[in-house]
Amino acid sequence: MDESTRKAFMEDGAVLIEGCLNEAQLALCRQAFDWGVENPGPASCDLFAGTEQRTLNDNANPYAKSRLDELAAALPFGRLFADLWGSEHVWYFAEELFLKSGGKSGRSPWHQDTSYLPWSGMHFGNAWISFESVPKRNALEIVRGSHRGTRHDGTTFQNAADPTDPLHGGGTWPRLPDIEAERRASPGTYDIVSWATKPGDVLLLHPGVLHGGGAVDADFPDRHTLVLRFFGDDATFSPLPDHSISGFTPAGVLFVDELAALRHGDPFRAPCFRQLV
């Protein structure tokens, strides 16, 4: 890991690691992805219900936990994130699956993962693994440096007319900006970056960065992406709002029982998370 890559992750919130996974490692990831699609967990949902194309989103499938823990240990991400962050230790959190097919799925709304997860600190990272060659126009986009700024309320992902429809409400956190509307009205308002990727490339993303996109179209009809999440030494517990209109607890909706004893500022740790380094 060169110093410019470390600096880019800390300052920008995302970096692309080209050729991070070899063919065998990528095949293991695809096996885990396909198993998860065929055996969805209780948090799985259709991203665009009622439309022609097939879509799926799933988070921390408990039926897949043992196989995902083993997969994370077999991949290079423990040492990679330790080097990237300067962290002595690295833990694996959980996976997320994205499936969009049929060529008509729209972009995913802008959001921060930290609106949904009780996380604070620089030692958090998502590894985005796409199994197709993704053109830049269809790629995930980020607002450069936004992980070092405001933690916004999340979006419900359910209101097509208002992509800033609050997840929690109550004014505890500022409402999301309508980034798409603002960039159309005034190009250059946000410093937005994205990367075309090839199979084996991995996008490393801080979960606090504003990100969205990843549409499919007639020329790029299908996208299959496995996201693996990791954390390190300076990761702390930062609870969500006490009263969420969406029913989220202060610990979120994943591993709630395991995180129940943590308080604001505590190291983010629990025995259920596989230590890799």
From TrEMBL:
Transmembrane segments: none annotated. It comes from the Bacteria. Pfam families: PhyH. Residues 151-173 are annotated as: Disordered. Coiled coil: none annotated. This is Phytanoyl-CoA dioxygenase. It comes from Cupriavidus numazuensis.
